[in-house]
Amino acid sequence: MGIQFGNLIKGKEISLRDLKGKKIAVDTFNTLFQFLTMIRDRQTGEPLKDSRGRITSHLSGLFYRTAKFIENGIKPVYVFDGEPPRFKKIVVEQRRAIREEAEKKWKEALDKGEKEKALKAAKMSSRLTTEMIDQSKELLKYMGVPVVQAKTEGEAQCAYMCKNKVVWASASQDWDSILFGSPKLVRNLSVSGKRRVPGRDAYYELRPEIVESEEVFSRLGLKREQLIVVAMLMGTDFNEGIRGMGPKRSMTLVKKEKTLKNVLKIHDIPNAEEIYDLFLNPPGVDVKVESSPVDPEKIRKFLIDEFEFSPERINKAVKNLEKHKPSKHSLGNWIK
Questions:
Q1: Which of 185, 189, 257, 299 is least crowded, fewest Cβ atoms below 10 Å from its Cβ?
Q2: Last residue of a domain, one of 198, 220, 242
């Protein structure tokens, strides 16, 4: 879910072509959730499934979107979450309860014929399973795309890699990357394109945007340490926010009080020091990012034979992927 900064932070709109030649660390869990949320039947809210009832929305989004990245010269590196911090368990349980409630509302709305409500509830019921994660890793392997396993939060690892110049930027819909110390954040990378206006028969163009952390701190008049405290007051993936503390009120308070220590004299935030330290000093794994050749036959066997994707669409995408994917002789471009 991430931190909801709303209109507090603005990015600069770019195109996929602007990222040509750039190595981007992708927050994979965030991205897969986007696919599971978006790729659904508009009438029933059901995700894509094969004849055995297995959900395939995540594989569809991951394959076609990754192929599009490569076509545009982008070098994605998918980072998977590790073990969540101890103090995240409460938030995880709350989200599970929200998904279960959404699933009930989804079925109720369908029974009443309320399609818009059903679709909204269906999206909120999305869940990412261990099986889906393993399937995603397998597909990326066949596509020859690097995969990195984080110690804990995927965004923390993305930020660590970006800070150490292993990649050019982090990519996520959440703002947490900035708090974790990523110098650059690309938003809307996995969801760019035409999007339907909720409740209306109209569309708009959603474009990728680049956010420079130093510009954010300068514009807000806050240090990174202070923006972390602002986020904690509002609520993060690791703590509930303080009731009534939105972006503006939180920022005003932090500018006045300056430090976490002073803010804690006014508001009690459970596990505050641990959460603050996680953001400020995120754990990271030193990795050597390497690509490998695309394996067309394994992609076809996996997506067409195993999960019943359209042979025509997959074959067309695979041929296009082969045209743009680095060969064995050009793998050095991935690790410079």
A1: 257
A2: 220
